[in-house]
Amino acid sequence: MKILLLFIVIVVNVVTGDLPLALSCEAEKCELPECRCSSTSIPGGLAAKETPQFFTITFDDAINVMNLVTYRDILYNRHNTNGCRAGATFYINHEYTNYNAVNELYNEGFEIALHTISHRTPQTYWAEATYDTMVQELVDQRVLMAHFANIPYDEMKGVRMPFLQMTGNSSFQVMADFGIIYDATWPTVTSLSPGLWPYTLHYASTQECVIPPCPTASIPGPWVMPMISWLDQNGIPCPMVDSCFFVPKLDNEDEWYDFILINFERHYLGNRAPFGFYIHEWYLRFNPAVKRALARFMDLINSLNDVFMVNSIEVIEWVKNPMPIDEYRRKPCKVTKKTNCTRLTCGPLRSDHNNLDYWMESCTSCPRTYPWVGNPLGQ
Ligand SMILES: *[C@@H]1O[C@H](CO)[C@@H](O)[C@H](O)[C@H]1NC(C)=O
Ligand SMILES: *[C@@H]1O[C@H](CO)[C@@H](O)[C@H](O)[C@H]1NC(C)=O
Ligand SMILES: [Zn+2]
């Protein structure tokens, strides 16, 4: 029945070429675990003090041996007070990524997520991206990483678009069709306090569109994990920490610690919407005081009974099935099915799109050419 319905919907769409427009959300028709209206209300109707405060740290772009050093330094061997390993999420793009390193991060229990194969400029490429482009950039990237980093295809569940550039309906349609679970691209600069919780696109989103085009079709399936902006020291919103402008002096650890804490408290003392620390690794590498402040902040988080540093996908899992802190604490920890990596160095690999030679570390086999859009296995 479900398959027949899906078939009819697809046929209708092919005939008209249009997706159904999303209608305004009615909470009675949109229920967990499948559906949630865009809203600042706490899932499951929980009170703030019973609600786990999730902390998600995410890093964007290629994984290489240099940034792996930082990740080992600040992320490995952390635990939450429930005894579970602390999480972090990596939105990875392909060019210059070292797949041995990706395999290591995966085996350490961190989340490996999609940030497209090409990450190319100009930004209008993404704003105008069609469904087929997004299949080649996202779904093929999943094939690429599953192969060269030897991690399960289904474990890549999240997407962040390059430059936080939304693609209208396209990326969400692709996610719906290929079972990619959530998007973490969409900033909010207005729903900070109370913060906007993750929601689905069955119905129209009420979130403001900062980097248009945003999806306006009804697209059941994928979740939106809003990037709730920080406020810099002049009160100007910034979705990525490294995009905040009025920040403490970059060599002042104590002031940075306070700056992080003030932003955290907007969530923790508010409606406990997930608190994000979204950054590129270079910012920490070039600013050791910021890195130390962050490590101190994570030490604090890892000692609080109602705060949990998790992979982003774990937030979505909780929102689908919300439960109070004491119940959440009793849940078994997530387990990562470890995979092997035979460390191979491949190269020089000629790249068909720009005629450059690349070297690439792989876990499984070496490709013939450098993998790229349209040829994710480099065959
Ligand atoms: C998304 O789909 C809706 C409904 O079909 C349509 O009105 C809108 O123009 C589409 N958005 C873009 C950017 O194409
Ligand atoms: C991984 O490698 C080890 C040691 O070579 C081997 O015993 C094990 O069977 C391998 N596991 C898988 C899933 O291939
Ligand atoms: Zn990026």
From TrEMBL:
Residues 52-178 form the NodB homology domain. Pfam families: Polysacc_deac_1. The keyword Signal applies. InterPro entries: CE4 (IPR052740), Glyco_hydro/deAcase_b/a-brl (IPR011330), NODB_dom (IPR002509). The keyword Lyase does not apply. GO terms for molecular function: hydrolase activity, acting on carbon-nitrogen (but not peptide) bonds. Residues 1-17 form the signal peptide. CDD domains: CE4_CDA_like_2 (cd10975). One of its GO terms (biological process) is carbohydrate metabolic process. Keywords: Signal. PANTHER family: CHITIN DEACETYLASE-LIKE 9, ISOFORM A (PTHR45985:SF8), PTHR45985. This is NodB homology domain-containing protein.
